[in-house]
Write a structure and sequence with these properties.
homotrimer; 162 residues; alpha/beta; five-stranded parallel sheet; globular
């Protein structure tokens, strides 16, 4: 039998701005209520932990292609609907501001400041053409694999795949 | 330590017809087996709780644009694949009927009649350009934020993000 | 009150190669750590349990159309981003190989060999134009509906919708 703590563990797989916002908002809400919160970033979700510019040294051709396709990190993330070649995220950004909602950048910083644990998936970093030099040290708490995720999630009262 | 009840709590973030159907079918199945079921509608998922026509009074320009882009509610929801400018949902609708499966509209009404609790996320309603006047009173049980979601989900044996 | 076991139960709804890989990697990781793992395949996820060629006998016109649109099973699955008319999956396949990561086909076979339980959702098979003759017997452990899913998920320490 497993014992559960008041804790939310989220896998952030998606690269879309609105889905990342949902992950941040749930995590910030959890911390506000005294719960633990961990986000495990994998596949396209890794873009949210990246620096703006891709680090291209010591990478093979394909890793460079992937790094450039995905460039921009948090600032270039599309919307999951009505993206309209980048107009959608701008529009949603303005509406969020009008509603006094945190922007994506602010949401990540706030989550971090409130103690949301952010783990970058080492297995998929290579597949996405990313090395530790691409990642923002001020955001990443830990580089780890699926075993760490399972350990965290097993004890969590809420598990989500976003 | 957290105690868990036989209960499913779903966040419906997506605006696609097939994903909403999955949320309804899981919730209806849970109620049939005597479990509790709650769906928390946020971002594009809020479209499934809307009236067909957008309510445009007392809205600023951007809120109107968002409300009109998203118009149609349950009836205009696209498929997550093979949408083909709206032909996909029609096709799937016919196949569902041939299989005696509930249509999206019927699935929502059945879920409601069977006691599935439906909560509209107040934080994202503003961002999507929605006010309570846009929402179908016969479907929404409660307007609430992330704290309510976390309270429900902490006690739930099954938590999903759709 | 519900008792939880160390077990992950995943609904695989999506038809994308990268999401299916995530489902396999989490399940394989769980089995490696001695946990139970079940994947419940529904809607587009059913494509991953299919034979390459659609079985067209005894099907009506619409079922044939759906079966042909979805043809190819594991081998034709698109990426959730940067699909580029099929170039994306090839590219990711090469990067996965360079990182000694299992291919999608290997991931499914490995998951199966390690005892990941694979259940095909009977309710949605009809809607997707699929019969048991379309499915690969070597992968499917069970044909079942939402009640079976709920039974498995209620006891699971980790529940995910992918």
């Amino acid at each position: 039998m497993v014992e559960k703590e008041k804790k939310v563990t989220i896998i952030l797989f998606s690269g879309e701005m609105d889905r990342a916002l949902a992950a941040c908002n749930i995590s910030i809400g959890a911390r506000t209520m005294g719960m633990d919160a961990t986000i495990f970033f994998t596949f396209w979700g890794l873009n949210f932990l990246r620096k703006d510019k891709p680090y291209l040294k010591n990478k093979n051709l394909l890793q460079r292609v992937m790094a450039i396709l995905n460039r921009g990190g948090r600032k270039k993330a599309p919307l999951s609907r009505f993206n309209f070649l980048g107009v959608g995220p701008e529009l949603m950004g303005i509406m969020m501001k009008n509603q006094n909602m945190l922007s994506l950048e602010e949401a990540f910083r706030t989550a971090k400041d409130m103690g949301v644990k952010m783990i970058a998936c080492t297995i998929t970093m290579g597949v996405m053409g990313l090395s530790e030099k691409d990642m923002e040290e001020s955001l990443v708490d830990e580089y780890a694999g699926v075993a760490t995720y399972l350990y965290e999630a097993n004890r969590s009262s809420i598990t989500l795949f976003i």
